[in-house]
Amino acid sequence: MSNAAKGQSIEEKQYLIRFKADTNSHLHVLDYDTCATKCPDKICTIFCPAEVYKWEDIRMHVGYEGCHECGSCRIGCPHENIKWEYPKGGHGIIFRLG
Amino acid sequence: MAEKFDVIVVGAGPAGTACAYTLAKNNVSVLLLERGEYPGSKNVMGGVLYRKMMEDIIPGFYKEAPIERPIVEQRFMMLDKESAATFSYKGMEWGKEPYNNFTVLRAKFDQWFADKAVEQGAVLVNETVALACIVENGRVVGVRTDRPEGDIYANVVVLADGVNSLLAKSLGFHKEFKPDEVALAVMEVLKLDKRIIEDRFNLEGDQGCTIEIFGDSTKGILGTAWLYTNKDSLNIGVGTMLSGLIKHKLKPYELLEYVKTHPMIRPYLQGTDQQEYLAHLIPEGGYRSMPRIVGDGVLVVGDAAQLVNAIHREGSNMAMTSGVVAAETIIEAIAAGDFTEKTLDVYKRRLLDSFVGEDLKKYKDATHHFEKYPHYFEQYIPMLNRAASQMFTVDGTSKREKQRKIWQGIGTAGEKMKIARDLFQAWRVMK
């Protein structure tokens, strides 16, 4: 099972993918206070398949560079607190296979 | 870039490309917009492409298209923690023409398909986001792109922009989808020697096998996992309703790891190397979640129209059919010189009368039913596994006694009644 044991973490999975990150984020938390004070679960940090959203002590960090552009955060945020756009044409994730 | 086309198609997936191909073939000027570096670079699918609907567009396509394997066996695993009850159908008729379905890798297949549309005369422009529809007097007359001076005009705009159809939403065709209307799927492509795949899955030559995995693969919540054979790789994935992940606070990639290391699945993956990790949403709300799909100068096709049959893992075929029906409607509209909603509404009627509409209506309550009553996955699949284990374990107990114990194990008379009711309800939403 040597190979199967590799690549378990999300960081290792993300390394497999080609990204062409834009300089500007296509994901915007509308109100950072809402994350801090009204959202104890911070569920986006759990269901996001690329761990784009990370709670860092007092503030939501958005690592848009690793986004799969799936749209889950926009639909799943209980406070509709995420403004979601497509990255600029040709940017963002570039799947080679699947 | 020419300023005006007969038609602009937004999105070069199966729906958009099918539409653009059909239009171009009939000498309609069509612009196919793709936001990715190339068609397919943003697209993900478990991997099964159905032959019929693709062949309606390009006869004999599989002779030259980048397909992986024609599927000759479809297995269905009912998974418990340390066991599985499996049902399978394998038929040699699927291994030869006319074939039933194929595994494909979408980044490769979508590029090929879009090139075919270009050969017919469609203009493909990559790396371009359609930011908004241009609306004049309530009629869609073009799209605004993210290119400099990027306004382009057309008689009809076809929205094939996928599950996150921001354009259809901005036109007010649908509200934001809810977490119980979309499934989040994550998948890995795992490299494995061709010979080993054939040995491991009991295949000859280029034949392929698909395995759908229910039950413990999603820890009892609504969804499925899948394991498909490509030429020299495997696709292993798991998809659950987004609402299920939220409710159970599950990380999708951890669920995928759970599936990959499950004792019933692990042996299939031995010695593989990860090639790619992919995530995507699937519109699984079905008929009840279908948005408005026709307006003045605009049609909605494919995932953007929620055309997915989750029960039978069909989507790309429905997408293609919707693209073709949209194209045929537009060709008639051009002949009539009328692009109003009233004329274009033929698209909706024909789509709903086709297998697409019929199947969506047939299963309109299925997803909601299984979402609402999780015990089908939580309780009945383990129950089936226990029954199989008891019945087939030879320990000196008579078969009649075994049957009696299995029957007792199901529970009290009341619990049996509940199961009977559940089975009846399941039949009702699936019939």
TrEMBL record, chain A:
Lineage: superkingdom: Bacteria
Record-linked InterPro entries: 4Fe4S_Fe-S-bd (IPR017896), 4Fe4S_Fe_S_CS (IPR017900), ETF-QO/FixX_C (IPR007859), Fd_FixX (IPR012206)
MF term (GO), any: iron ion binding
Domain annotation 4Fe-4S ferredoxin-type: ranges: 58-87
PROSITE patterns: 4FE4S_FER_1, 4FE4S_FER_2
Cited Gene3D superfamilies: 3.30.70.20
Pfam family, one: Fer4_ETF_QO
Keywords: Electron transport, Iron, Iron-sulfur, Metal-binding, Nitrogen fixation, Transport
Biological function: Could be a 3Fe-4S cluster-containing protein.
Entry similarity comment: To ferredoxins from P.putida and C.tartarivorum, ferredoxin I from A.vinelandii, ferredoxin II from D.desulfuricans.
Name of the featured protein: Ferredoxin-like protein
Automatic annotation (TrEMBL), chain B:
Tree of life domain: Bacteria
Alphabetical list of InterPro entries matching this protein: FAD/NAD-bd_sf (IPR036188), FixC-like (IPR039651), FixC-like_C (IPR059103)
Name of the protein: Nitrogen fixation protein FixC
Cofactors that this protein relies on: FAD
Record-level Gene Ontology MF annotations: oxidoreductase activity
Segments forming domain FixC-like C-terminal: 367-431
Transmembrane segments: none
One Pfam assignment: ETF-QO_FixC_C
Keywords linked to the UniProt accession: FAD, Flavoprotein, Oxidoreductase
Family under the similarity heading: Belongs to the ETF-QO/FixC family.
